[in-house]
Amino acid sequence: MQKDPGRVSIAELLEDQGEALKMELLAGKAGLGRFIDHPRVEKPSLAFAGYLERLNDYRLQVVGQSELGYLAQRPEQERKKAVDAVFDLKLAAVVVTHDMQVPEILLDAAKRSDTPLISTQLESQTFMTNMMLYLSRRLAPRTYQHGVYLDVFGLGVLITGASGLGKSEIALELISRGHRLIADDMVELSRVGTDVLVGRSPESLKYHMEIRGIGILNIRDLFGAAAITDTKRVGLVIEVIPWDEVSEHIRLLGEDEMINLHEVCLPKAVLPIRPGRSLAVLVEVATRNQLLKQRGIESGKDFMHDLQERIQQGGRE
Questions:
Q1: How far apart are CA 40 and CA 16, in angstroms?
Q2: What whole-number percentage of the chain has pLDDT above 90?
Q3: CA–CA separation, 25 vs 44, rounded Å?
Q4: Domain that holds residue 244
């Protein structure tokens, strides 16, 4: 099934989460093509009381004990009018929780309006929490970045640079050294929080890598399941560039850099390429250095601070 990153159909929702969230379709099969475009899940309590203005027809609606209890207390004619008014909005889907007996009035309204009516064994709060976690991941804004993405020492490392510089070869050496491939050539990036960017491989390229002169390799088949992983939060971007393009300032001292990817600021390191340099080792060192920075240890700044103090004191080394 082709997935739209901006929305999820009810059919896809049932396929992905039906078993995990103990969901069963009761009625409204014709409406399985309807979709959800927002991770927030709603409860139509006020809508059953007649206030329909704030009810969003592209969000999942959850009916629990409170809603069914309220409907049961209303006169039959008012109850039918309230339910019909809600289902006439052509909602994406309605889920009844707690494995409760679904009233015929809801089943009839769902069949009449082709609205998917779903039952789940889970309690309302448990269902809503798990569903919103799924929808937040599934509907997270995403973009695509050319590069190679790996798990190095537990940190998500995105290697970027112009084509032909040997990014895949660097990644292959890192894999042979025990690190894990996430994506090669094209990386799918999802912003799942204000400062959280998660990378994964497009489904069609998953576990595969292209090496010039050899062809397309299946890394899982070659190195085993321990050599791959599906997703990781991006923790460092490493740009590889030709040696003659690096500035003298960076060549001598290096500097802390940041890059903005998909509206998330990430630490960046620049690695110049020239014959004889072991780029895989340098990527490992850059990753270890970033892990130290996350712990508040910054070797370069400490060195420059000590050097400045020696200069001011007139000391000699």
A1: 18
A2: 62
A3: 19
A4: 142-304
Note the pTM of the prediction, 2 decimals.
0.71
Buried b (16+ CB within 10 A) or exposed e, 222-245: ebeeebbbebbebbbbbbbbeeee
Task: Tell me, yes or no, whether 316 lies in a domain.
Answer: no
For the chain, the straight-line distance linking the first and the last C-alpha, in angstroms and rounded, comes to 67
Domain co-membership, 100 together with 167: no
Count the Cβ atoms, other than its own, within 10 Å of residue 212. 9
Whole-number Å distance between alpha carbons of 267 and 18 = 39
DSSP string, 38-86: -S--B--HHHHTT--TT--TTS-EEE-HHHHHHHHHS-HHHHHHHHHHH
Q: For 32-60, how does the pLDDT look when each residue is reduced to its tens digit (9 = 90+)?
A: 999 999 899 999 988 888 888 878 888 99
Domain boundary among 109, 138, 167: 138
Report, as residue numbers or ranges, the catalytic residues: 146, 167, 185, 251
Q: Which of 71-85, 124-138, 254-268, 300-314 has the lowest mean pLDDT?
A: 300-314
CB burial of residue 170 (10 Å; 0-12, 13-18, 19+): buried
Q: How many residues does the chain have?
A: 317
With respect to residue 99, please indicate whether it lies within any of the assigned structural domains: yes
Cα(71)–Cα(67) distance, rounded to whole angstroms?
A: 6
Q: Does residue 34 contact residue 118 with C-beta atoms inside 8 Å? A: no
